[in-house]
Design brief:
alpha+beta, single chain, six-stranded mixed sheet
Length: 117
């Protein structure tokens, strides 16, 4: 089985190459939770998938992203991202995001996003 660092790198590379949803189907558990900052989490793969599809449908222009740092401790990984995008009807948005993932049996079981500007 791949290490958590290898899984994290695979997932991050899929995101950077435009294959986020393919990676979601492969690397996320059926009972995954996803959470934005301190908002209530979305629970279950179907609810998380629906949210991701809605996000990508809102995307007007993707200007770029960079994964600048990655750390792994036990079953938790962290990645630091710089994102630059425009959502439909919104001004261009550039921000830093920290993604925290908990892994179990090769799948993401919890993911939380922390945003700063």
């Amino acid at each position: 089985m791949a290490t958590i660092r290898e899984l994290e790198d695979t997932l991050n590379q899929a995101i950077l190459s435009g294959k986020a949803m393919e990676a979601f189907e492969e690397l996320y558990a059926d009972d995954v939770t996803m959470q934005e900052n301190s908002e209530p989490p979305r629970v279950g793969k179907a609810a998380c998938r629906d949210y991701e599809h809605k996000f990508f449908a809102m995307l007007d222009t993707f200007h770029g992203a960079t994964c600048t740092n990655v750390a792994v401790e036990g079953d938790v990984s962290y990645s630091e991202w710089w994102n630059d995008l425009t959502l439909k009807g919104m001004p261009r948005l550039a921000y830093t995001q920290i993604t925290q993932r908990r892994w179990k049996d090769g799948k993401v079981i919890a993911e939380r996003f922390f945003y700063t500007r």
